[in-house]
Amino acid sequence: MLVLEGRDAAKFAQAQFMNDVTALAPGHWQWSGCLTPKGRVIALFALLKFDDERLWLLLADADPAALAAQLQRFVFRSKLTIRVDDGLHAGGALAAPALARGAAIAEAADGAIELDLGAADGPRTLRIANAPGEDDADALVRWNAFDLAHGLPRLSGSQVEQWTPQQLSLDRLAAYSVKKGCYPGQEIVARTHFLGQAKRGLARLTTAAAAAPGDPVATEGKELGKVVCSHGGEALAVLPLQLPDVPLDIAGAHAAPAPLLDGLAR
């Protein structure tokens, strides 16, 4: 967990992250991320805004210490601290939250923070507490499959700084803004949006063999795109928005399009 605290915490986040922190009400959370100046995604995370002086970044994949060091270079005279909190532990359950609903953050009686990460086709609760919960390997498998089916990409090291928000279809998660002020990569994101230049997006594929990030997705020997992440017999890949109606393969193994599910936007 990465924690931003201080008088300028929200102002700093507004200037550095790709979603509109100012428009986010206290006590709520949103998907957001960090971009390179060329508009490529460095990290994707859930941003929790308790108030303008306390924000948490829940990182699924990025190294919090590395991201903290990167952000620290832009603090200058801003009044805030950026720190990694190793004492906070996130754990998920495939059940409806007791208190949290939608993007609203809730605090449980035991002091844990509760988030609603479910959708219409299935409830999920994420709890952030000072003590780790019990590991459930089967629940983790189902949790990751749910993320993939709903178009939440997981970015391993090889996929960092490879894709724009539009290529990852992060509009489906309401994870970036084209109307707020400047932030790193904003010019590329806004230009792509307003000029209608997005030609590639995220696609869900079922696969006949295990796929790995970076594997090519091809048809008749012609590469159409690449795998971003995979889980079990499915993968998320960046492909042309106008996908030809032809057989696909991933690294030589048969693949077929599957619908992306909605419901994770916040």
TrEMBL record:
Gene3D superfamilies: 2.40.30.160, Probable tRNA modification gtpase trme, domain 1. InterPro entries: TrmE/GcvT-like, YgfZ/GCV_T_CS, YgfZ/GcvT. Keywords: Transit peptide. It comes from the Bacteria. This is Folate-binding protein YgfZ.
